[in-house]
Q: What sequence folds into this?
């Protein structure tokens, strides 16, 4: 083939890439409208204690119900929201909804909220979290903030001070998707994280490769650092039995439940607990 001539493969890929970037640009614009129009909704996925089998908390997971395009996955829209900075207002919305929902649940049930590293660029993040807790009336120890390893790789002074202030506030801190990024074990200890969440890619590959050994060593690491360990993506009995045998403290996955609406959380709480908080659980 002639040098300098784009090959058909090249043309194919560039056309494909253009479609992807066009969609991203359109979604970015539609996101602004979607926020004001209330197209974003927080779903909740239950997390269970391995030793007691009891419900411990829910993870807040954002959904975008686009009026024309249907359900758009956070795997697609979160990166767009991060690039455009929209993750900051969206993040506050998730936090507010999650705290308001959790305050109507029984006191021993917590709520976990994912925080993007981009949200730490917001100087007012800690005050915003504090304000949301105050406004909702949720006790800080019921809020668990999930961050990813990239945040701690080379933390800026702003990130360091934000984490220290969050610690003082009394919220819980979880290292999410553990094992998929570049972990700094030293920072894990330095910031006294409460929990490691083992990424579901390891759970999925439990019967293959070295995943089982990797999960075991992550669980022993969590014990050595006096942290809890949650196994994510538990879809069957085998994976649950593994979590139990290896001493994971919590499990989360489709074996128990998929993320659900706040109304379905109310129903699950009634069924699971058989009791309601004074006055009943708001649905
Ligand atoms: P994540 O925080 O690691 O959340 C866990 C993801 O695994 C969720 O996907 C959940 O639905 C999925 N999952 C849980 N159990 C199973 C299982 O047994 N099998 C399978 N196949 N999947 C399972 P989801 O809701 O699509 O969210 C994907 C990612 O998007 C999240 O990963 C998180 O990184 C991000 N995300 C979602 N909501 C938010 C948000 O409000 N803020 C931020 N910053 N990120 C969010
Ligand atoms: Mg998470
Ligand atoms: Mg995760
Ligand atoms: Mg994950």
A:
């Amino acid at each position: 083939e002639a040098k300098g001539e784009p090959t058909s493969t090249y043309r194919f890929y560039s056309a494909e890439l253009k479609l992807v970037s066009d969609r991203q640009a359109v979604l970015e614009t539609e996101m602004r409208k979607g926020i004001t129009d209330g197209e974003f909704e927080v779903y909740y996925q239950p997390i269970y204690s391995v030793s007691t089998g009891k419900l411990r908390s829910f993870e807040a997971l954002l959904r975008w119900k686009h009026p024309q395009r249907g359900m758009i996955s956070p795997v697609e829209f979160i990166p767009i929201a991060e690039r455009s900075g929209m993750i900051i207002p969206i993040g506050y919305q998730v936090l507010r909804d999650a705290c308001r929902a959790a305050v109507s649940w029984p006191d021993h049930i917590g709520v976990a909220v994912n925080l993007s590293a981009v949200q730490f660029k917001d100087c007012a993040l800690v005050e915003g979290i504090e304000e949301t807790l105050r406004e909702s009336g949720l006790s800080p120890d019921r809020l668990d903030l999930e961050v990813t390893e990239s945040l701690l790789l080379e933390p800026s002074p702003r990130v360091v001070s934000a984490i220290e202030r969050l610690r003082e506030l009394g919220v819980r801190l979880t290292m999410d998707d553990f094992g998929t990024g570049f972990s700094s074990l030293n920072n894990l200890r330095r910031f006294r994280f409460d929990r490691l969440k083992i990424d579901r890619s390891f759970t999925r590959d439990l019967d293959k490769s070295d995943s089982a050994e990797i999960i075991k060593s992550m669980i022993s690491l969590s014990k050595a650092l006096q942290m809890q360990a949650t196994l994510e993506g538990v879809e069957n009995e085998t994976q649950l039995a593994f979590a139990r045998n290896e001493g994971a403290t919590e499990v989360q996955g489709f074996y128990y439940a998929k993320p659900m609406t706040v109304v379905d959380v109310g129903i699950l709480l009634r069924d699971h607990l058989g009791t309601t908080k004074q006055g009943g659980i708001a649905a």
User: Anything to note?
Assistant: The beta strands are 40-49, 55-66, 70-72, 110-114, 143-148, 172-178, 195-198, 228-232, 250-252.
